[in-house]
Design goal:
Elements: E1 2-5, H1 15-27, E2 32-35, H2 45-56, E3 62-64, H3 76-81, H4 85-91, E4 97-99, E5 103-107, H5 123-134, E6 141-145, H6 165-174, E7 179-182, E8 189-192, E9 204-207, E10 223-227, E11 233-239, E12 244-252
Parallel strand pairs: 1-2, 2-3, 5-6, 6-7, 7-9
Antiparallel strand pairs: 1-10, 4-5, 8-9, 10-11, 11-12
Bound molecules: fe (ii) ion (FE2).
Residues 38, 67-69, 147, 184, 285 line the site of fe (ii) ion.
Length: 285
């Protein structure tokens, strides 16, 4: 099984929740950990290093891609001239591949300094990623990891769907793509793309919530996804009483509607009350 995390925002991580994540990693037979961006709060060297050291200490293979928080925000020359300099110094290239017993994971960097929160994909990137997908062994789930979701539930979120997301998914479906892993909106949800993008096969858009940071949104607690070899997706929420991540239910196939975040009837300005010294902030992606 695969642990899918997103939006850890190191620099704003909560130690208690990070410890709970370490504990969960010891309890589950994980093949790998996939982290779909926003590793840091402000792309600082120390934040990248702390993130790297935390995941290296777990002893489980892991793969990351950058999020919009992982390029400099205020230092304009660095943001334009060398946006991924600090990232690549710690993690190496931004688009890696990780193969496990049941999964073939391909990282795609959707972050662009010009389209900061929206992101974009290039035609070259779409072609090259397709070629990488075709190299996945039969029988393994072919999964792409990138930061911003390709399908959203609310109109105001459409502006953050990366440029060329539809074209990319249509091409990648022909290359055997089974699922995309995303974060960015800090909510756990799985959305099917077959009908939405008129694909010849099903492709799932699997989105993870906020793993360990204070940056919670929509009143959703810290959560992580567990993805099984048959693409069943389970949601684990951080429990404020036990201080552990506990299985809430099944996100996909969606047998439990209360588990799937619906985005409806939720005030986006809501602040969660302080509990156990955990202060939940109103945030932007
Ligand atoms: Fe983000």
């Amino acid at each position: 099984m695969l642990l899918h995390l997103s939006d850890l925002h190191f620099g704003m991580e909560h130690n208690l929740i990070a410890d709970a994540l370490t504990q969960l990693c010891k309890e589950l037979p994980l093949e790998a950990i996939a982290i779909s961006g926003d590793l840091t709060q402000r792309a600082r060297r120390a934040q990248f290093q702390a993130f790297h050291d935390f995941f290296d200490s777990l002893g489980i293979p892991w793969i990351v891609v950058p999020g919009n928080h992982d390029i400099p925000l205020y230092h304009l020359p660095r943001r334009i001239l060398n946006p991924f300099g600090r990232y690549t110094k710690i993690f190496g290239e931004t688009e890696k591949i990780l193969e496990t017993k049941h999964f073939y994971l391909v990282g795609v960097n959707s972050i662009s300094p010009k389209h900061h929160t929206q992101g974009r994909l290039s035609h070259t990137q779409i072609t090259e990623t397709g070629q990488r997908l075709l190299k996945g062994k039969a029988g393994k789930k072919r999964i792409i990891l990138s930061h911003q979701p390709f399908r959203v539930l609310r109109n105001y979120q459409q502006k953050d769907i990366p440029i060329l997301a539809c074209e990319a998914t249509q091409h990648w479906a022909h290359c055997g793509l089974d699922a995309l892993l995303h974060g960015h909106f800090h909510v756990p949800v799985v959305l099917p793309l077959q009908e939405h993008f008129e694909l010849h096969k099903e492709v799932l858009d699997i989105q993870a919530g906020t793993a360990v940071s204070h940056r919670l949104r929509y009143d959703v607690p810290n959560s992580v996804n567990i993805i099984h070899p048959d693409l069943q997706v389970d949601r684990y929420d951080f429990n404020l009483e036990s201080n552990k991540f506990e299985r809430l239910g099944q996100l996909w196939p969606n047998l439990d509607p209360s588990c799937q975040h619906q985005h409806e009837n939720i005030d986006p300005n809501v602040y969660k009350k302080t509990a156990n010294n955990i202060v939940f902030h109103k945030t932007s992606p």
